[in-house]
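Data card: per-record layout.
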Amino acid sequence: MERSKIPFPPTWWRLVLLSVVLLFSSRTAFAQFAQGPVEVRVPLAPQPVTGSDGLVHVAYELHVTNFYQSTGTLRLKRVTVFADGISLVLAHFTAAQVNSLLAHPTEGVDTLGVPLEAGKRVVLFLWLTLPSGRPRPQMLQHQLAFVTTSGVQQLVDGVRTPLNAMPPVVLGAPLRAGPWLTHEGPGNHLSHHWGSIVTVNGQATIPQRYAIDFFGLTPTGHAVHVARDQLNASTNADWVGFGAEVLAVADGVVRDLRDGEPNHLPLASLPELTDLTVRTLMGNFVVLEIAPHVFVHYAHLQPGSLAVKVGGRVRRGTVLGRLGQSGNANAPHLHLQVSNAATFEESEGLPFVFQTFDRTGSIQIGDVLDQAVKVSLETNFQKPCRQQLPLDGNVIIFK
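The structure for this 399-residue chain is written out next.
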């Protein structure tokens, strides 16, 4: 066969070829590497979830600790993730790419790797896409390569974590119709949601791993009725979603709530938080238990709007309250998250999917705040989504 006529290998074959190359290079170089005195943990087994892009993703963290003071500063120069042993590479990150996995990446490109000082820890946030057309892996294995200040190569090759095989919880709509912008949503580890680790009472958890801030939009794709230069003088009523009914996403029992906290003015300075708890962050809120160890948290509701009581049973679609601007919020929106505990602290965020919605495109938050920007919502191409998770920046309409 002529070389020009050889078909380009499909994606999964390219992954297999990359696996072979990386496996060969890492194994032949293994003798040149010392075992790194580094602890690497995955605190919560990743749980696959189908995103609004139609692909299956996993979101999780690697806690990497340079354990001994005598080790000195290490530089993390490579991270490779394999599926089910070392037969298939899911992801490969070189030095500059490893830096991009941090919640607060350093400026500039450091080809030597991410510095990890003696006795210190870094947390890497991984958002991986599982290959389509292949069986879903059961186990992820990680290989991390370091270099010491004296140039000695070190390798950590024993970090394994199983995939959580449980399907994500399926929810109904938390709001009516739309459109709604899913701001600071899933897949964005630079957001104040996923990128915020809460350390309290001996535990480091991420309650907001899959949290979404829903901002209401006009048919033209804007979140506020005033011009950009008037935002600081806007009132809550100027924001599209303010006052919208907030709905129970499933049958459940109200486990906690608070009412009576005042709305703040949009974009006003907020008091500095002394601790991170549901009562310092969420203003008026409702926590709904919809299954054992599955809790839905609704935050920033209007004072006086809550229509439920602790211990009360609700049906899916029940009005819980109205979208407001209470608590630690800079503009009217609904904060929604699912976790494994009724409290904010000491809880882990869980993936979820909505039973049905339409995705009409994606928008940057800066565009929806500027009336002068023409926003395209792709109204002629509404993508129906069934049992999928809206991703960061999506514009969606609940059905």
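Known properties of this structure: The first strand starts at residue 34 and ends at 35. Residues 41 and 373 are 44 Å apart (CA to CA).

See the next section for split statistics.
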